[in-house]
Amino acid sequence: MCIIHDFPTFREWKQAEEDALKAWIITYTGKKFYHLRPDASMVDIEDIAHALSMICRWTGHTKFHYSVAQHSYYCSYLMRSDKLSLAALLHDASEAYLGDMNRPLKHFTPAGPAYLKIEEAVERVIFTKFGLPYPMPAAVKDADNRMLYTEKEQLMPTHAWTTKWGGSVSEGLNVISIERWTPRRAEKMFLRRFKELYQEK
Predict the structure, then answer these.
(1) Do the beta carbons of residue 65 and residue 92 sit within 8 Å?
(2) Exposed e or buried b per residue across 161-175, where buried means at least 16 C-beta atoms within 10 angstroms of its C-beta
(3) Burial code of 94-103, b = ≥16 C-beta within 10 A, e = fewer?
(4) How far apart are CA 201 and CA 197, in angstroms?
(5) What local confidence, expressed as pLDDT, does residue 15 receive?
(6) Do residues 79 and 85 make contact, with C-beta atoms less than 8 angstroms apart?
(7) What is the CB neighbour count within 10 angstroms for residue 189?
(8) How far is Cα 80 from Cα 85, in angstroms, rounded to an integer?
(9) Dihedral through CA 38, CA 39, CA 42, CA 48, nearest 10?
(10) Nearest Cα to 90, choosing from 58, 45, 148?
(11) Whole-angstrom Cα distance, residue 120 to residue 198?
(12) Multiple choice CATH, 41-197, 3.40.50.300, 3.60.15.10, 3.40.50.450, 1.10.3210.10
């Protein structure tokens, strides 16, 4: 029986290595973050808090600037333990380095799989750095979905959805009243919450 392995050619391998060295950004604190070669030394909570406070949820189509940092802060209060709360606070932390790809684009277009592969690697590095298990617990994803529907009700024009995200869309709906925060306030509140939850070893 002949087994054919689909190994890359030397030229393909060399190109991939060259691309990996080119795929990087400069962060708020001045670090270099390599998208295809992430490691814990590149991750900084100040970078995460600042970047997420500047990124608007819903691809920017909300009634006012509503950041990923504020969304994550709210998610952390839907958990029942500090460990889960920290995971919820950091569940979108990879977006500080990759940007926020909206769900329909991520899950229903050819752009999604490539992004998801890189996202998973970056999430794993971040969660490992802060002592959290990965993959993230289902309860965190549930909180994310509960906030998604809360945001839809409070921040978006009325529009029916044909796609249902997560389980019960009514559970916990609007348990949080979304406030209008500046990016600076969102960054400050995110860091304050992180300091409450994270126990450095």
Answers:
(1) no
(2) eeeeeeeeeeebeee
(3) bbbbbebbee
(4) 13
(5) 78
(6) yes
(7) 19
(8) 7
(9) 70
(10) 45
(11) 22
(12) 1.10.3210.10
In the numeric block, the tokens 């490691």 are attached to 39
Task: Give per-10-residue mean pLDDT for the chain (201 aa).
Answer: 59 75 96 97 98 98 98 97 97 98 95 97 98 96 93 90 62 80 98 94 54
User: Hey, how many other C-beta atoms are within 10 angstroms of the C-beta on 70?
Assistant: 27
Instruction: For residue 175, give every residue at least 6 positions away whose Cβ sits within 8 Å of its Cβ, in sequence order, or none.
Output: 78, 146, 150
- Please report, for the chain, the start and end positions of each structural domain, with discontinuous segments joined by +: 41-197
Buried b / exposed e over 115-135, threshold 16 CB at 10 Å, is beebbeebbbbbbebbebeee
Q: Which helix (H) or strand (E) holds 97?
A: helix 95-98
Q: Are 190 and 49 in contact (CB under 8 A)?
A: yes
Alpha carbon distances (Å) from 136 to 85, 88, 181? 11, 9, 27
Task: Give the model's pLDDT for residue 201.
Answer: 54
In the chain, beta strands by DSSP E = 24-26, 32-34
